[in-house]
């Protein structure tokens, strides 16, 4: 869900790529799954086949060893062997030779009874000789004879491993603690056992081993020593887990093998067959290789598709988007048409036509707006003059009537001349701020004549060399005299100061008038905020505020608040840049 919300606000390139990958990746995943499932099925079938073959050959070995173990008592009870073992030295040489030959014939029959018997033997300690099926003069090997007596449980553990050879023996008598009269045994054919083991994995190219962990012997079919050691470790793991049969994939020397194992309770040994996995899954390896080639091809397709998408769709689209953003920034620049007659070519041409039309309309509207602004400035400026003209003549008449005020009347006439000379100079819409401040000082001197020393005025702050609309400071000062300071009984204070901050210039006009309330200040601020909707409002503050906004923009103009002196604070914000 989060991914969907992310894609909703993403670019069209990301959305198309996400849709393409959403279609491609599941197909690759399904192909991979089919390949792996097929690999697992083939591995299971081959494993089961090898395990069945192992069961068959191990059952054959078990039956053959069991048959030899069960037939051995019949040969042990041979009367000639008993007589020779008991009274051999008392016999005549002829009689002893005849008995030995008869015994050899019996041993020959025993040897020929099973292909797994390498040799049949009778160990006779009285004669100090071993009787073989095909050899007459043999000396009794004491070490071998002692080793053949270690078999205590014929049917549970019939095998004796000695000197890399495997035997099944039976002493006579077998139920006494004394040394037996003789021992009858057979030596199993290691070659035949290895041949049987080789039958298990031969068709699959595998190798087999028969491991007896208790006696430490093994029979294998030419297995690498390192791999044989790995098989011994594997058999130990299975014995610890008490696992009798099964299969498992093992890794040896960075190579994977399929190990099929079965435990024989008669041999007390594990039969383990190792088949290289590459031989088991040879056909699937080809498909797996083809799958990786398909993945590489898919990557190439993704790269090609990405390049195609970027080159023919995304970049032209972003070019169009950037052009629209330039239009939003009032940069009406046409697009360089590098497309043919496709959809983007049509959009480019339509965009350029629209830009040309907008330029024409903007130029016409701009000229009309300039004319309207100049007309508005003249109208607002003319609204200031009649009101102040009436006040000036009223004060002048009062001074002329007084014999003692003739000097002030003369000075006042000079101020009036300077004042009206300033405001009637209509050939310039903007003047230096320094002249505007000087004009305001002239106005204050005129008011000083009217009010005397009752109102104290303080000018502070430097003035930057910038051009401003005419009459933006004097009307604010006039407003303070008219509505705050003129009717006060106690001394009045007027503080005019300035501040430059972050590329803007601020003029502050503050008084200590007590007649204005917080509600009236808030209402006045609201009128200033919505002055564009109140064109009919023609007060001094509104006139100055609208003229400043026409010059600098809506971020500039006049704001009002409570002054630190107790009256009204008027802030004039101008642009320095």
Automatic annotation (TrEMBL):
SMART domains reported in the protein's UniProt record: HAMP
UniProt key word Phosphoprotein: yes
Sequence intervals crossing the membrane: 290-310
GO terms of molecular function: kinase activity
Lineage of the organism: Bacteria, Bacillati, Bacillota, Bacilli, Bacillales
SUPFAM superfamilies the record matches: ATPase domain of HSP90 chaperone/DNA topoisomerase II/histidine kinase (SSF55874), HAMP domain-like (SSF158472)
Transmembrane in keyword set: yes
PANTHER family named among the record's database cross-references: SENSOR HISTIDINE KINASE YPDA
Domain HAMP: residue ranges: 311-363
Membrane topology: Multi-pass membrane protein
InterPro entries: Bact_2-comp_sensor_kinase, HAMP_dom, HATPase_C_sf, HATPase_dom, Sig_transdc_His_kin_internal
Chief location category: membrane
Protein name, UniProt field: Histidine kinase
Location relative to the cell: Cell membrane
